[in-house]
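Why do we bother with holo predictions? Because pocket geometry can differ from the apo form. Keep that in mind while you read this record for 5-amino-5-deoxy-1-O-phosphono-D-mannitol.
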Amino acid sequence: MCGIIGYVGKKECSRFLVDGLKRLEYRGYDSSGIAISRNDQSNFEVRKAEGKIERLEIALRNSPIQGAIGLGHTRWATHGKPNTINAHPHRAGTTVLVHNGIIENFESIREELLARGASIVSETDSELFGHLVEEELKKTATFEEAVRLSFLKLEGSCSIVVVNDRFPGKIVAVRTGTPLVVSRSQKADGCFVASDAQAIVEHTDEVTYLEPRDLVVCTQSEFKIFPIDKKISPENEIKRSATKLDWKMADFDKAGFPHFMLKEIHEQPRAILDTLDLLIERDTMRARMEEIGALVQRASKIQIIACGTAWHAGLVGKYLLESVARVPVEVDLASEYRYRDPVIDEHTLVLAVSQSGETADTLAALREAKRKGAMTAAICNVRGSSMPREVAATLFTAAGPEIGVASTKAFTTQILVFMMLGQFLAHARGVKTKAPDVHFFLQLPHQVQSALELAPLVQKISESCLQSRGYLYIARGRLFPIALEGALKMKEISYVHAEGYPAGELKHGPIAMVESNMTVVVLAPRDELYEKTMSNLQEVKARGGRIVAVGDHDDFSLQKLSDHFIGMRFAHDWSDSILATIPMQLLAYYTAVLKGTDVDKPRNLAKSVTVE
Ligand code: M6R
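The structure, written out:
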């Protein structure tokens, strides 16, 4: 989950590295550091700081380093406290490195190195790799071969980028699990390696994604890729094609919003429209889903796997797909799925849902399913990421880069994909259904835009509820996952306790928590379950809970029952889940702002969870 950037070229790179790290900060922000060799010939100097990148910038202002080759790292601590000693880059002798991922056999490597007299400074698993390279360099002529042979001693899933005082002008990087991209930039007159293309988007418009077990050697003029399992020699070089980036620099700007999260909440009408453009053939108004449709036709069941917010989208997907396509759908948290020995055969379609396409648990679950013979597909927001490259078919969301750690526009576009898929399958399978026509989906951006106009009202409600002891989110059916999502948003950015429950479950336990200082957020559009939810709400009212209700704008009964009412124009059952999400996101956002938390980078979290 850490962020890595490296540059070797002709230009002064301190700014490249720091700016790149800022764009990678979503991956972790416990500490950061850079290493630069001043003139290509002198030893690498390292600067590190605990906390966010601004602290590193201060350290660099006090003690600048300049040079045209360097590495940068922003950390999400796994082994050892988030302090300066454990911050990367690590030095061992002449070797300097940054690392992302986990070295699983680090205990035994550490003991062996200590027994051989290595002087280990930090508590990290990462530093150990530098010592292994130093040992290899005593026996091996080339730097890249020493890195390769050292890497073969590691177990686990990681990427490591290494430089060495004795081999100027060269960066060597290796990847097993966690992602790495490489690019030769004309503009910056050099080569970059990074854990995400975001870090280098201002220098290049194309990147090459390294595959697991690739090793890359970068110099100022070129990069060469080799398989980690073969001796490095010209005949073993691998040619990989580059991927064009379709991002704009504006995607990485707050555009006047105080936080990326608020910008991204407001981008949802555009994200939905762009996703519709990807999914609908405008001439024929047909959904472009043949590939995945063919897989579903062969499937006797679908297993959706995902984590966090993407899992909530999967839960909505289950409701939609089962109700219209009549295919049995299971939804699993990927971290559970991979260990529960699920029943999988060649008629099982495993569908991964992920914004990043890199989440370690989801990837591992996907690989496990593939190994057991399942068909695989993905819903993903990042082209070129690992999941789309490993499955038979992908439906892309076009949310654009999501920078805020709290997922917002990725979630609503994932639900949109499920809606479209349900509609496509219903038609393909000839199921008689109340699935809406494709034209209906084209109304969604406007409906979401209207929902966003509720922001000032939701802000006021956040203020009124700010002293709440906790939040209970309740709903039924397709909206139950939205209650879960509302609670997750509240927890992760405002650090307040929040739970999502099916409204019918309230009386089986959680109602015991209801009192005047407990806010109960209810999602209750006038659907087939409305009356049931209203009865549950009466039970809350009778116990003095503070009710925030989201319902139809003209539902005066609900308005009367609630302390705060958010009236919405729900157009069709199918769009409820997207529209009801908007006030959930805003409620969490404004509560977090009022509590003064770091909304875009909440504590202990990282955007892309690439460790198990
Ligand atoms: O990139 P992914 O969609 O696979 O990420 C899954 C979760 O880590 C992610 O949704 C996480 O729960 C978010 N912080 C929620 O806002």
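Residues 215 and 500 are 45 Å apart (CA to CA).
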